[in-house]
Amino acid sequence: MKQRILITGGTSGFGAGAALGLAKRHHVTVAGETWQQVTAFRERADADGARHLRNNLDTIKLDLLNPVDIAHGADREIDVLVLNAAVQEAGSIVDVPMDLVRRAFDINVFAHLELVRRVVPQMRQRKRGRIVWVSSQAGLYAPPFLGTYAATKHAIEAIAAVMRAELHGSKISVATINPGLYRTGFNETGAESYHQWADSIEPLVPMPPAAPIFALQHDPQSMIDAMIEVIPDGKSRYRTMEPQDAVVETKAAQELAWTISSHGIP
Fold first, then answer.
1. How far is residue 64's CA from residue 114's CA, in Å, rounded to a whole number?
2. In terms of pTM, does the model score above 0.85?
3. Cys-Cys with 139: which of 87, 115, 153, 161 at CB 3.0–4.6 Å?
4. Residue 248 belongs to a domain with what CATH number?
């Protein structure tokens, strides 16, 4: 069945890849933060040979911190809402400036929750719908120097889990997608943001070079393929994590939390 899907942060990275794939069978509204991103995505879609999908692709500006944009995004019929937009602030949890911590929660968590609360009534009225939270591997454990980002994703995990239980009787399915370490450019910009403030102060806990971690990143296509399959599938499993080495790593980290000492990593 053809569904109407809205993807926040859909003009780049996982969101853009999933949108172009989903538009082959569904109507996809791609939401970008700025008009420049909206225009760039439209040009990319044409360059990628997706011109024939134009009837299935709608691109809108949706700055999650703009109430007008939130209202505009919610004022359309949505069968599947994909909460994909995010910002990443790298640095130790005792160093990242508090205004950046608050902004990360405002974008990653609170604005998305506001959008959900505006869309759920129409889903309840139709007695069907689907909400997909794009969380992260970092939503299930917290890597050093990604504490701010991990905290927002941990919050998303709690919200999604509760929402799944509370909306069960409304025939609204809820799922999470938890990408591991992928080469989309998102991690690089997150690390680069550290230098915007850390170069002008003396961090209490300086962040080590990120290049060795970046070298381990995977090709994002496997995650995009999984998203294309899971997003429209109301009967999918609740959590989808890729790649499989991320699943193994996450489960090991969760198990370690029961035995690790309180004074640091052994």
1. 9
2. yes
3. 153
4. 3.40.50.720
